[in-house]
């Protein structure tokens, strides 16, 4: 009897948890026809429409990065799945002192010029790993900002080893789960577990297969140990969906990961301050937010680094309208603070204490 009612209770809570899917990045993508999915993502018609629009505020072009890509291939890169609400249970929402004086414009690259990783533009290949890139890139920057060290952390560790807790690897995942992984599992360096490898088409750079890489838990170079290469975070949080709080968070702690809805016109972004003008909702995407400012025309913007290489957009970067939650960009910024564990090595059991540089 007792066991029976426990089982029932469990079933009820499982059903409840399954039902609780956050709507934050959950604006579901449009249902596209097979014909649409097989057509090219880049269209002269969209370029024309944007560039002739009197108030677009941005320029469109046929970006080389997607010169041959179909809508389906482009959609594949948009790997942010709607976050299950249970993942957010107990995750603090950080807000900042509203009296903190913030500059009118801010660029993390110039604020912390010694941290070259902030300005890196990466390439997610053909895998829907944006959820992992935005997280790993922001955490790498935060290690440099906090501890004064250059470090590139491994997207592959997160992508291959986080498993279903993070979602579905190259088929998309949850940004908040990536940050949680940094707390409980840590993440090795890119040197230990690189994103691209030489093993033919099993890696995320290859077409047409691009499966999620296998979790090897072993550094590619023989003299590095997986466990010692792990770098951790001490906290995981979302930032309050208020531009002031998001700006204060970047100003104090460095870049954050944000998600937003991508429409067809975004594939054509070249320069200026993006806002959605035309095209269908293709999916959810995650990137790294590195600053803000206001144009000469008085338009407030966010400054972001994408991971579609430098032949897309403004040398790999883009700006998007700030303060109006354009495409949901202000909905759910996520971050965490780096831990000194494994950064400063203390050799216990002997008199020797060495501070290692990484
Ligand atoms: C797409 O189709 C599914 C199932 O047919 C439906 O539940 C969903 O509401 C549709 N989404 C949109 C955005 O039209
Ligand atoms: C682009 O597509 C065409 C036709 O679909 C194909 O012949 C060509 O090899 C492709 N080019 C690249 C660079 O993939
Ligand atoms: C960007 O694309 C170029 C040309 O395809 C490639 O050689 C380079 O490795 C890419 N950059 C990154 C960071 O993967
Ligand atoms: C990181 O590397 C760059 C270029 O190699 C160097 O100029 C910079 O000082 C380094 N930063 C730190 C924090 O060591």
Automatic annotation (TrEMBL):
GO molecular function, one term: cysteine-type endopeptidase activity
Chain ranges of the Peptidase C1A papain C-terminal domain: 102-337
Keyword Membrane included in the entry's annotation: no
Biological process per Gene Ontology, one example term: proteolysis involved in protein catabolic process
Pfam families assigned to the protein according to its UniProt record, in alphabetical order: Peptidase_C1, Propeptide_C1
SMART domains the record matches: Pept_C1 (SM00645)
Gene Ontology, cellular component aspect: extracellular space; lysosome
Keywords linked to the UniProt accession: Disulfide bond, Glycoprotein, Hydrolase, Protease, Signal, Thiol protease
Alphabetical list of Gene3D superfamilies matching this protein: Cysteine proteinases
Domain of life: Eukaryota
Cleavable signal peptide: 1-29
Similarity annotation: Belongs to the peptidase C1 family.
The protein's name: Peptidase C1A papain C-terminal domain-containing protein
Organism field: Brassica campestris (Field mustard)
């Amino acid at each position: 009897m007792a066991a029976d009612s426990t089982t029932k209770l469990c079933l009820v809570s499982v059903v409840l948890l399954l039902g609780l899917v956050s709507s934050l990045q959950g604006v579901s993508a449009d249902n596209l026809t097979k014909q649409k999915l097989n057509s090219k993502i880049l269209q002269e018609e969209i370029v024309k429409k944007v560039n002739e629009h009197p108030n677009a505020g941005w320029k469109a072009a046929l970006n080389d990065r997607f010169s041959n890509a179909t809508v389906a291939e482009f959609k594949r890169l948009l790997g942010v799945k709607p976050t299950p609400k249970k993942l957010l249970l107990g995750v603090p929402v950080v807000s900042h002192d509203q009296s903190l004086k913030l500059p009118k414009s801010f660029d993390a690259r110039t604020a912390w010029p010694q941290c070259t990783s902030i300005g890196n533009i990466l390439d997610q290949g053909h895998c829907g790993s944006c959820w992992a890139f935005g997280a790993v890139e922001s955490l790498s920057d935060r290690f440099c900002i906090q501890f004064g060290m250059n470090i590139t952390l491994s997207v592959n560790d997160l992508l291959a080893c986080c498993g279903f807790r993070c979602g579905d690897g190259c088929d998309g995942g949850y940004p908040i789960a990536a940050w949680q992984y940094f707390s409980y599992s840590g993440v090795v360096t890119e040197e230990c577990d690189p994103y691209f490898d030489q093993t033919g088409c099993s890696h995320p750079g290859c077409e047409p297969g691009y499966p999620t890489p296998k979790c090897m838990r072993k550094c590619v170079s023989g003299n590095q140990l997986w466990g010692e290469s792990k770098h951790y975070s001490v906290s995981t949080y979302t930032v309050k969906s208020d531009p002031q709080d998001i700006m204060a968070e970047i100003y104090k702690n460095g870049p954050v990961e944000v998600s937003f809805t991508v429409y067809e016109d975004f594939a054509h972004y070249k320069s200026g301050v993006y806002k959605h003008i035309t095209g269908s909702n293709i999916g959810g995407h995650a990137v790294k937010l590195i600053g803000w400012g206001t144009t000469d025309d008085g338009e407030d913007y966010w400054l972001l680094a994408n991971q579609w290489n430098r032949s897309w957009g403004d040398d790999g970067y883009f700006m998007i309208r700030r303060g109006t939650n354009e495409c949901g960009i202000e909905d759910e910024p996520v971050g965490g603070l780096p831990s000194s564990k494994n950064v400063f090595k203390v050799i216990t059991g002997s008199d020797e204490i060495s501070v290692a540089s990484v």
